[in-house]
Amino acid sequence: MNRPETNLPYRLGLPLPAARVTAWRATGAGPVAETSHPVHIAIVRPDGTLIGSAGDPDFMTPLRSCLKPIQAQALFLSRASERFAVSQAELALACASHEGAPLHTDTVLAFLSRLGLGVSDLMCGAHRPGDVEGIAALGDAAPTALHNNCSGKHTGMLAAALAIGAPTKDYLHAHHPVQALVRAALTALVPGVMPAFAVDGCSLPTPVMSVRNLALMYARFGTPPAEIDPTLASGLGRAFDAMSEHAELVGGRGVLDTRIMRSLTGVVAKRGADGGYAIAVRASARTPALGIGIKVESGSEEARTPAVLAVLDALGLMLPAARYALKEGFRPARKNHRGLVIGHWEAALELRDAQGAAFAMVGPLPGALSVDPLPGDA
User: Fold this and answer.
1) What is the pLDDT of residues 89-109, one digit of tens each?
2) Residue 378 pLDDT > 70, yes or no?
3) How many domains, in total, are found in the chain?
4) DSSP labels, 282-331
5) Is 374 a domain residue?
6) Does residue 6 have a pLDDT over 70?
7) Each residue of 23-38: b (16+ CB within 10 Å) or e?
8) How far apart (Å, rounded) are the C-alpha atoms in residues 269 and 247?
9) What is the residue-wise DSSP string for 90-131?
10) Alpha carbon distance 296, 317 (integer Å)
11) Distance (Å, rounded) from C-alpha 36 to C-alpha 27?
12) Is the pTM of this model over 0.85?
């Protein structure tokens, strides 16, 4: 059964720190708030210490694609990474939610072919590419499972199944030995937690956990504990490096994950469907090793971008060059179907430490966003 996760001060009814993203719409009399999206945030050290939070750090959510770097550890625990000489690019795609560009699909197809398998062995389902080159390459043809953003992850699981001599036809079922390897990796990173499992969009099991434990998982992904299995520790390190080195394979053109990893050193970022996000930060002169878990409660992916960047900014990770590269994400413009700017998104959050003291404040950024004039405006 699922063990309840608790954060006692919040459960005793103390007020939760505010964190939300607002969608503003311009009017002739000034902007009005059209929708508001609560955000839950946890910032955790590898030893499990919660050093900052906003909203409810114990908010429960399916981890969705935030789990992918941990699911990819089946490649190492099965020794498939050695048997099939898995490259860093292939490993990055096993951790990816890719956009279906030719760069992505060609690499996955070559990996499948080396395994002696084909697209029909993928059980993730099909959807259209999100990348313009992928759409152009597909033309009028129907998309296949190769275009699914999870095809790299599923290929990695097929490789793990082959390496341990397990059937490939049902690798996504909870009882399959490959899924047992995934659960072993998860348990090693978040010990003592027995999550319930749901079915993800690609049909694989996905655990339901707190935002706090998502942050802990990523803190230990970036900085594995000394006591965990050396094979797993090595695999986590390789996955971190692969995602950093091949950021374009983890997401793609214009994807926040890719843009963050290109702009920040020692940081791995991974989105999950319906408003989830996770970040692993390795220790540096500017910051200790950290894991960050974020959940936009409404599931809005548009609201997620300014929330993620606001947290990174509050932690002092946004150096001037990175801030410039990601500047439009802090207050993304809202556009209508004609491309007119009709408002913007804006994050405001109040991070607090575990004792409830102020950690940092992030509010509206200075300067006005230019919007297209409304009909009839002077």
Assistant:
1) 999 999 999 999 999 999 999
2) no
3) 1
4) ---SS---EEEEEEETT--HHHHHHHHHHHHHHTT---HHHHHHTGGGTS
5) no
6) no
7) bbebeeeebeeeeebb
8) 9
9) HHHHHT------HHHHHHHHHHHHHTT--GGG--S-----SS
10) 21
11) 17
12) yes
Query: Sign of the CA dihedral 333, 336, 339, 342?
Result: negative
b/e sequence 156-165, b meaning 16+ C-beta within 10 Å: bbbbbbbbbe
DSSP state of 147: G
**Residue 39 contacts residue 349 (beta carbons within 8 Å):** yes
With a CB cutoff of 8 Å and minimum separation 6, the contacts of 166 are 160, 176, 177, 178
Q: How far is CA 308 from CA 274, 291, 329, 349, in A?
A: 14, 13, 9, 11
pLDDT at 355: 79
Q: Which residue has the tokens 């910051």?
A: 287
Q: Where in the sequence is the domain holding 170, given as residue range(s)? A: 16-362
- What mean pLDDT comes out for the span 233-254? 98
Q: Is 5 part of any domain? A: no
For 110-134, the pLDDT digits (tens) are: 999 999 999 999 999 999 999 999 9
Please report whether residue 10 resides in a domain: no
- The full DSSP string for 170-227 is TTTSTTSHHHHHHHHHHHHHSTT---EEEE-TTSSEEEEEEHHHHHHHHHHHHS--TT
For residue 2, being part of any structural domain is answered with no
CATH number, domain of 280, equals 3.40.710
Tell me which of 73-87, 181-195, 273-287, 363-377 is least confident: 363-377
Tokens standing for 204?
Answer: 């694989």
pLDDT at residue 364, as a whole number: 35
- What distance in Å separates the CA atoms of residue 167 and residue 150, rounded to the nearest whole number? 20
